[in-house]
């Protein structure tokens, strides 16, 4: 029996890696997916297909598209198309090393591993700025309905943000709270925060239609740079993400999200999430 991938609804693990691949041998795509099939449980190893793979496999009625920076964006928003995404998750980095080696050996000559993003849980699930991330996530049945839906048609957005923590720490505690729109000390929302506050930009019920998503973002670091690997799931396409991101960029009202004062997106990719 096929079912949706459990990682979508599971809490974030202590460690995870995003393994991002491109097709190497066009003629052997199905063979490659068969080679890793037995390891994809949707929990420890979750899988997503990029646009090229969806097209090659002839998957019908699919809403996946390639990411393009929104029209009118005043910033450089790099897009990155990958054909395959494997999200490996564990309580230990050592296990991730072994899972990655296993997957690389199975996919050798078939897919090329183009990028690896090493993620970790910070404290009880905070961004590296210290702010709690995920508070307004839908839970239980609501999460299932938002991310997967009745048709099990789930999509993911992976957007890697690189923080400038020096710049972030040049702000006073009050300024930091107003960039986010929540107080660091108790996570309470600040009612009179400016329109640029991140949680005001992204308030899910303030969109028409409402723009709900399930976020499973985690901090990342490569030892030199760091930030947030934003990861969201929604059913039937990328509409919620696109509405929110446009507003974050100021494309609705000229007001840019406070996050841009210390962080920038350096990679954005869309994936369709098959059943397992
Ligand atoms: C540097 C990158 C980002 C950081 C550090 C960040 C951090 C946060 C924090 C601290 C919150 C408040 C707690 C919570 O409800 O989770 C939040 C809320 C939220 N963020 Fe982000 N976020 C980032 C990027 C994004 C992006 C790219 C989107 C979507 C395009 C997004 C969508 C949301 C949504 C939907 C909420 C909940 C809003 C609500 O309904 O109250 N975030 N984020």
TrEMBL record:
Dyp-type peroxidase C-terminal domain mapped to chain residues: 125-274
InterPro entries: Dimeric_a/b-barrel, Dyp_perox_C, Dyp_peroxidase
Protein name according to UniProt: Dyp-type peroxidase
Gene Ontology MF annotations: peroxidase activity
This protein's UniProt keywords: Iron, Metal-binding, Oxidoreductase, Peroxidase
NCBIfam families hit by this protein: Dyp_perox_fam
Keyword hit for Metal-binding: yes
PANTHER family according to UniProt: DEFERROCHELATASE/PEROXIDASE, DYP-TYPE PEROXIDASE FAMILY PROTEIN
Keyword Kinase part of the UniProt annotation: no
UniProt xrefs under SUPFAM superfamilies: Dimeric alpha+beta barrel
Cofactor requirement: heme b
